[in-house]
Amino acid sequence: MRPLKDYSNIKGFNYSLASLKDYNHEIEVRNMGYAKRLTLNSCRLFMHMEDWKKDSERFLDNLRDFMTVAYDHGITTTPILLMPYFTDDQTPYWLSEDHSCSPIPGCYYPENYSIGEAYVSDIINAVASHPGLLFWDVMNEPSWHGFLLSVDDPQEKQKRLDMVWDFVRHFIKFVREKDPVNALGVGHTFIEDTEYSRTGELVDIIIFHDYLETRSRVEATCRRAVELSQKYGKPVINNETGCLCRSNPYDMAVETADRYGIGWYLFELMIEEEGGMWSKVHGIVYPDGTVRDPSIVAAILGFFRNRNETAIQSDVNQEGHADKAIAAARDALEKRAGAEELLEAAENVANLLEAGELVPMAVPPTARIAAYRRSEKKDIREIRSFLYNLVCRLKEGCDIV
Description:
single chain, alpha/beta, 8 strands, elongated
């Protein structure tokens, strides 16, 4: 797509193109269905260059198929042309000195540019005319990888950084020559990289990532992004944000970006399977369509928690139902009821606690109740203790003596 003047309407997500052996059209239809239901409208796509090396035709077929599925769901795609990878031993890319924007040892040396050029050319030839293409993300986080982070000597680090920026500027020019029509940008690690790299005047869109920890820090980044947008006369977008372990909650990141009129891409749409590198700190939707945290969904839809003085404290005992739930729980405990009656009493109490936000939701009490019910062998003593603790929490939350 030709460059737009404004990308503030973008509500996007990061996503990985499945490997050759795992790609499944129906799974992509399902996942893009989730994105559509969330009202998300653009996908920033990570790809695996090693798959292109193994079978370029199949790799490009999968890419075309994915972009078509996304577009059919009202979702544009911004492919990342050059990006981090994991080495064979799964060393994280930011620790691997051989890391390049693709698995090419020594890729930052001009004599090796041709390998990256062949890969990029194939992608451009395959999907440059696809109606779902929004813009090219020429490279992901050029300033954050082992080639730079594995050295401490300031002179050597600066030498390597100069090589990286030369590489980035070369590929901006290369992509522009191969495709003079579609917009392009660089997925910079920090907004400051726009000027350090001297790419602000070369791109169509100023792109940055933000995982900062507090509202004031995120707002400072947004203000700087707006300043650079005005300086270069280019639209701006944040195409990576949201991380639970970096004190960068999704709702805060989205709310702040929306306030400054900056489009965003959350990292990431799907919650990986258990054991996946980012499964515990990133992701919105599980494969079965359940979600990690409803506040993320609310933020995407433009609704945010009331954190000011107008917020009204819940009173789950307004009609005396907390008293009734506690009495029912006491009765079940005193008569030494069976597992099902204890769990029924526990669910009554748990629903009040969860509805009133009187209990942590990392592992909701109702999730524990569901687990007890699924268990073939129910530990009555453990269930009784669980119910007793729920009652204590409800009494405390409602100031019941």
